[in-house]
Amino acid sequence: MNTDQIFKGLKVVDLASFLAGPGAATVLSDFGADVIKVEPPGIGDPHRLTYKIPPLPSAKENYSWQLSNRNKRGLALDLKSPRAGEILERLVKWADVLVVNFPHPVRKKLKLTYEDIGRWNPRLIYADLTGYGDTGPDADLPGFDITAYWSRSGLLDMTRDAGAPPTLPVPASGDHAAAMGLYSAIVTGLYRRERTGEGCYVTTSLLAEGIWASAVTVQAALSDAKFFPLHDRKNPPNAIFNVYQTSDNRWFLIVMQPKDWPALVAAVSRPELATDPRFADDVARAKNSGQLAAILDKIFAAQPLAHWRDAFERARVTYGIVQTAAEVTTDPQVLANEIIVPIEGGSEHLTRTVSSPIRVHGVPKAAARRAPGLGEHSDQILKELGFTENEIDGFHSGGSVPQPTQPVTAGGVR
After folding, report:
1. Which residue of 205, 278, 280, 389 sits 20 to 30 Å from the alpha carbon of 197, by its own alpha carbon?
2. What is the DSSP string of 129-181?
3. Phi, psi of 329 (to 5 degrees)
């Protein structure tokens, strides 16, 4: 096994806030990159507080901060202060990658555009995450995952049942998808730099990532396709591609091709369904899908989930159990594939975290370390950038760099 992590020696400055931009930097850190998390004085990145805001799950530990900022070092810097430019210039010259997600007007005001800082480092990969893209009437609007990724892309309209209003999606699910898109853009930029020696400006948006996630349906709209109504599980377009409930109130999905119909008949021990003219072939099953769904509802409601798991596995029926988040944390398949990993320096209530979804066989990921406190490593970083003790004291006294907080666990004071 090659013990060198893929991005060992890669230097990343994370100037972004909340989730999608920082998430991309986290993936780089999982493969060994040295990531400096830059935050404003005061509360720091506002994401430090989101775990306290309903409907996010309530906990003693700042689990969400830990997830998006593990493995990073923390620098507190007031970008509005007169001397911030001195520090920013050295950070940019130090870095291989800089991640930003300020709205364009804010970026221009702070002189953080690619035109402003790219000249300091011609090999820099300037990675930009926006809500709605670089141009167009809404380019300057702030975007959140629920507004830009879910709502504007059409996803929120598509992921609901007939008769039900749109509902709140899983928190930060769009942010994490967009983080992987931005990570891909960064890696593409790094590959280009390997070939040309030049840095570049790479970007994606929550809107673009949301439309990519819903691209099959959007492409259908582009092709003037005929759309089915919103899904109604009691009258589905396809009863063998549907959600059902067991006697112990668990939900599962069956996802079957027409050729698998005999296997389902065997699994439910109802051979007469195979010869029932209403369900004899694909066309008949589609025409009578509501009747078939009603029959399957009664069949599945008569036995607990354990019974159906065994029956499906014997008959080789493709199914998926609707698991809770708590069940995911102990799922043997999840643990066997190291999707959940230990945290170094965690706490009593935060000992594990979710790893990024990419693996490279034969190459280890970095061990997950707790996320930094606000400015926890400021002095260390400033010294590495070449500033003297007197200069660092001047940054502190002038307010450009506040004094570091005490060591933290998961984003809160230990």
Report:
1. 205
2. EESS-SSSTTTTS---IIIIIIITTSHHHHSSBTTPPP---STTHHHHHHHHH
3. -70, -15
| Residue-wise pLDDT tens digits, 169-218 | 999 999 999 999 999 999 999 999 999 999 999 999 999 999 999 999 99
Q: How do beta strands 408-409 and 412-413 pair? A: antiparallel
- The CA distance from 259 to 25, in Å, is 45
Show the DSSP H helices in 276-387 as ranges: 282-287, 289-300, 305-315, 325-328, 332-336, 378-384
Question: Which tokens go with 26?
Answer: 């986290």
Work out whether strand 241-245 and strand 251-255 pair parallel, antiparallel, or are unpaired.
antiparallel
Q: Strand, helix or coil at 256?
A: coil
Chain length of the chain:
414
Judge contact between 378 and 80, C-beta under 8 A. no
- Amino acid at the residue 121: N
Q: How far apart are CA 5 and CA 11, in angstroms?
A: 13
The position carrying tokens 């364009």 is 104
Task: Work out whether the CA dihedral 34, 97, 183, 5 comes out positive or negative.
Answer: negative
Q: How confident is the model at residue 411 (pLDDT cuts 50, 70, 90)?
A: very low
Q: What is the mean pLDDT of the chain?
A: 95
Residues 6+ apart with CB under 8 A from 162: 229, 230, 231, 232
C-alpha to C-alpha distance for 144 and 345, rounded to whole angstroms: 31
Strand partners, 253: 243, 320
Average pLDDT over residues 386-405: 94
Q: Helix 173-196 vs helix 206-213: angle between axes, to the nearest 10 degrees?
A: 110
What is the pairing mode between strands 200-205 and 241-245? unpaired
pLDDT of residue 412: 44
User: Do residues 272 and 262 touch, judged by C-beta distance below 8 A?
Assistant: no
**Residue 399: predicted pLDDT:** 95
Q: What's the pLDDT score for residue 325? A: 96
State both tokens at 57: 């799950």
